[in-house]
Design brief:
Layout (H helix, E strand, L loop, with lengths): L3 E2 L10 H8 L12 H14 L3 E5 L2 H12 L5 E5 L3 H4 L4 H6 L2 E5 L9 H7 L10 E7 L12 H13 L3 E5 L3 H8 L12 E5 L10 E5 L1 H13 L8 H14 L3 H16 L4 E2 L9 E6 L7 H10 L2 E2 L6 E4 L6 H17 L1
Parallel strand pairs: 1-11, 3-4, 3-5, 5-6, 6-7
Antiparallel strand pairs: 2-8, 7-8, 9-10, 10-12
This protein binds pyridoxal-5'-phosphate.
């Protein structure tokens, strides 16, 4: 990557190994189930999640949409966090296309939903209420700076949801970051849940794609829903080949991104005007705001960083995301650029 792009890990370009694998991928028509590379990726993903089956989808958004439309029918209610990506940033797809009604509960600073809040949100059968059908959790919690959520919490939330008659879906867009941060296997973080989506195209560097995993029966239903939303792809093995490299090679190196985020945070904390809580830096994101007496506007900071080939979003809180292309040497250059800009005032 030519620029130091810190806007998100979605900006990460595919690696040379991925481009090679894509060029050489064996393919078939995946709508007929004939693409050997897609089939291999799906089996590999299911194995990583400890589930029966996987379904290659075009994006995390499509994976969550297909999951929710597979678990729910029109008029059903899904319970999810008020800071959930699915609630805030997926264009209202579950309501627009599925007629599924969202009911939110507050996301806690550790990225969890309180069990009591979940219990209260699930209302008994009543002619006035949309029937609650599904609980959605998110791991890592993106809007809180990539907070990883532990296996024990997820198991107890899933057990409660099941006791209340709900299914459980995990939006695990960055589940491998959570696993790396917590020092466990990704499958531990979805133990006891019914389905999970994870992204191949974020920290794992694939150009396109996500995988939805669940039981064989669930994935059969999801395959039909994916077709409804136009997600039946043909020689998708070209894309899945990059996903295989993502799982085999990239999932194992995310701790490097976390160490780089930590180093970046430590450097930025030293700068007068930066307000940063290092406890929030658990995975590959660094969030910070500016002190009240800081004379610099976010737009000014971003514009000055751009002169150093550093790309950021001019918003508060600032969110800088590390990934494969943000090397330790580049982290030092970013800290240096921030120092210079803040010193100049
Ligand atoms: C990025 C993200 C998604 C959506 O993934 P896309 O591939 O961008 O559609 C869903 N949930 C979370 C938590 C995300 O961070």
């Amino acid at each position: 990557m030519d620029k130091i792009d810190l806007r998100s890990d979605t900006v990460a370009w595919p690696t040379p190994a991925m481009r090679q694998a894509m060029a050489n991928a064996e393919v078939g028509d995946d709508v007929f189930g004939d693409d050997p590379t897609v089939n291999r990726l799906q089996a590999m993903a299911a194995e990583r999640m400890g589930m029966e089956a996987g379904l290659f989808v075009s994006s995390g958004t499509q994976g969550n949409l297909v999951a929710i439309l597979s678990h729910c029918t029109r008029g059903d209610e899904v319970i999810l966090g008020d800071k959930a990506h699915t609630f805030n940033y997926e264009a209202g797809g579950i309501a627009a296309l599925g007629g599924v009604h969202p009911r939110t509960v507050p996301v806690q600073p550790d990225g969890t939903l309180r069990l009591d809040d979940i219990r209260r949100a699930v209302r008994p059968p009543d002619v006035h209420f949309a029937p609650p059908r599904l609980l959605c959790l998110e791991n890592t919690q993106g809007s809180l700076g990539g907070m990883p959520v532990g296996a024990a919490y997820t198991r107890s939330a899933a057990a409660l949801a099941h006791e209340l008659g709900l299914k459980v879906h995990v939006d695990g867009a960055r589940i491998f970051n959570a696993a790396a941060a917590l020092g466990c296997a990704a499958r531990d973080l979805v133990d006891g849940v019914d389905s999970v989506t994870f992204c191949l195209s974020k920290g794992l560097c694939a150009p396109v794609g996500a995988v939805l995993c669940g039981s064989a029966a669930f994935i059969e239903q999801a395959r039909r829903i994916r077709k409804i939303v136009g997600g039946g792809m043909r020689q998708a093995g070209v894309l899945a080949a990059a996903g295989i490299v993502a799982l085999e090679v990239m999932a194992g190196r995310l701790a490097e991104d976390h160490a780089n985020a930590r180093r970046l945070a430590e450097g930025l904390m030293q700068i007068d005007g930066v307000v940063l809580d290092i406890e929030q830096v658990q995975t590959n994101m660094v969030m910070f705001t500016l002190s009240d007496d800081c004379p610099l506007a976010p737009a000014h900071i971003s514009a000055r960083l751009a002169e150093h080939d550093i790309v950021t979003l001019p918003r508060l809180p600032f969110r800088l995301v590390t990934h494969y292309w943000i090397t330790p040497e580049r982290v030092e250059r970013v800290i240096e650029a921030f120092r210079e800009i803040f010193a100049a005032g």
